[in-house]
Amino acid sequence: MRETLAEWRPAIDEAIADLVPREIDADYLASFFGDPTYEYDPDAIQRALSTPLWDLLDRGGKRWRAVLFLVFVEGFGEDPAAYVDYACIPEILHNGTIIVDDVEDEATIRRGERALHRVYGRDIALNVGNAMYFLPLKILTENPADLPAERRLAAYEMLVAELNRTHLGQGMDIRWHNEDDVRVTTDEYLEMCACKTGCLARIVARLAAIITDQPDDVEAAVARYAELTAVAFQIGDDILDVEHSLGRAGDFGKAFGNDIREGKQTLLVIHAIQESDPERARRLQKLLAAESNTDAEIAEALAIIEDAGSLEYARERALELAARARVEVDRLEFDAETTQKLHAFTEFVIEREE
Amino acid sequence: MRETLAEWRPAIDEAIADLVPREIDADYLASFFGDPTYEYDPDAIQRALSTPLWDLLDRGGKRWRAVLFLVFVEGFGEDPAAYVDYACIPEILHNGTIIVDDVEDEATIRRGERALHRVYGRDIALNVGNAMYFLPLKILTENPADLPAERRLAAYEMLVAELNRTHLGQGMDIRWHNEDDVRVTTDEYLEMCACKTGCLARIVARLAAIITDQPDDVEAAVARYAELTAVAFQIGDDILDVEHSLGRAGDFGKAFGNDIREGKQTLLVIHAIQESDPERARRLQKLLAAESNTDAEIAEALAIIEDAGSLEYARERALELAARARVEVDRLEFDAETTQKLHAFTEFVIEREE
After folding, report:
1. Same domain membership, residue A1 and residue A142
2. Do A167 and B130 touch (CB under 8 A)?
3. Model confidence at A214, in pLDDT bands (50, 70, 90)?
4. What mean pLDDT is predicted for residues A17-33?
């Protein structure tokens, strides 16, 4: 899978640079946004839009949403090279949500450097993050692959539906952070992941299906595959946060016990509270609800989670979801290579180490 | 015009409540967002979405974007009552931008109460503001007026184009706040207004034209009317900030010299710098660039603006734009009542006192 990711990356970044060039000038602005009524200020737009967007993209990111889209397109029998522009849609949307999430969570670090709002100011960061919700949607209007009107409409309707659910998931998640009690059920937690992380993955799969004109049941099946994989990915994230923190219990840095400090209600926390004896469960609740935690308190919370067997439980759930995702793929009539690549994605999301 | 605004308000608020009910339950969530894969948490969504949204709407706002849309629909010969759901699109988009702008500007007060991010936290406020960019777009998919596919596609394409330009305008504006020198030209300032404020007004006009199937030249003419009116409105806003501050020069409250404190590059400021003698122009630049200003410094900046005749200049420009907006309307073949209402809007935006 590493090869597939590396192979496509230059073409994807080139397509993103067609959408938002590294150097902004008046000609680009007129061609993409329409003629100005008076006069654009390309220099301001360079600094407000292009520079922060490329700063984030150049820090890394595997572009796996774009690549997964191209794997689907190829699996559906079309030439992926003809659809690279469309691959930017989920990729830019995703990077936009990252910028906005970092403002919402008051994150300090993103991809090893200062979060965008700490480099450019909160106003610029938010505006570029929000612009990235609409810039890629214009690709459907530009229509580089000459799609018929009904497919463009179907794509817009799908995007609007999924982006609405994304905000529903994010709403549940941040609302829970602000609550003192962990009262969330496992099903509510999984729904939050299905909305928040799952919908962007569903966009990847459904966009590929709509653009290549697949029947509804195929679109639904790849959407389920993408959602299951994304939920497994999210659980993998929560596991990594605890594992990394346990691994460096002596090295009390910034990344130590992040999720606990934020009061995040993860699958591990929900399980640990259900499975621990009442006194330890109450203690974990209290540590999560606290305004701040000492490093010793973080270590204590981590120990409660570890002792409850929550890491093993979460890992099993993630593996189960990934297995169900593979079943969805196996039911479809993809060629062996596509099936293998789609299987590899479900493994990657769980076995990654960062 | 007051009567038109008052007449429609209950129907508009009812349509908004169909989209986002005041009380969220699982049935609404399943019908609007689709069946959950696992289980929604209606209580969290109540607190993350519905409560803050209705808090803002219940504080007031004239719903003039929704009403202007209905005036156009009636002028185009259709029954406005059949299109009230669509009238919510620009109204909710506008209120969403207000929430996000207040976070970007670190505003403290909105409609006489604490800004939403100060009541609910920045994370909840941002998420509800962003959700309001996508919730209303779903109305086109729900399709209450049974529009044919090509009109729905045209509406989506128009919305995406205009929302992209909105973020371009906002990007220019906030970037200029962060600059020390006022180097903006009058045309760049007017473009920023045309993008930032104008595009939401253009959505009002173009949506009415698209939905009622008007020819392209009619859509373009009402869009120009809306943009001209919106730019006049924005200049009116800048004038009011200076007038209010001059009027209460003794009453050094929060609202005194807001725009100057923010370092906003308004039409008045651009004019004052051009027209004042070099020493006073430099002094105004310096006061705008300062991290903070004493009340005496604000009074000094206001005096430079007043002495340069910038209030009269800005008022003339706004009146000129409003007159051009009326010419656009007069060229179209609206009935006398619609023409009168559209004229009244161009007067309202300049003559209002708050």
Report:
1. yes
2. yes
3. very high
4. 98
Distance from CA of A150 to the nearest CA of B (A): 7
Q: Same domain for A167 and A312?
A: yes
CATH number of the domain enclosing A10: 1.10.600.10
- Mean pLDDT for all residues in chain A: 93
What are B294-345's pLDDT values in tens digits?
A: 989 999 999 999 999 999 999 999 999 999 999 999 999 999 999 999 999 9
Closest by Cβ to B172, choosing from A45, A134, A192: A45
Q: Residue B353: its pLDDT value, please?
A: 61
Burial of A181 (0-12, 13-18, 19+ CB in 10 A): exposed
What would the pLDDT profile of B142-200 be if each residue is shown by its tens digit?
999 999 999 999 999 999 999 999 999 999 999 998 877 768 999 999 999 999 999 99
Q: Give the distance from residue A114's alpha carbon to the nearest chain B alpha carbon, in angstroms.
A: 19
Q: In terms of domains, do B108 and B238 share one?
A: no
Burial class (CB in 10 A: 0-12, 13-18, 19+), A342: buried
Q: In this structure, are B276 and B322 located in the same domain?
A: yes
Q: Which domain holds residue B191?
A: 149-354
Burial B216-250 (b: 16+ CB within 10 A, else e): eebbbbbbbbbbbbbbbbbbbbbbebbeebbeeee
Q: Are residues A231 and A354 in the same domain?
A: yes
Q: Do A174 and B48 touch (CB under 8 A)?
A: yes
Domain co-membership, B117 together with B186: no
**Subunit contact B127:A104, Cβ cutoff 8 A:** yes
CA dihedral sign of residues B197, B199, B202, B203? negative
Q: For residues A247 and A192, state if they share a domain.
A: yes
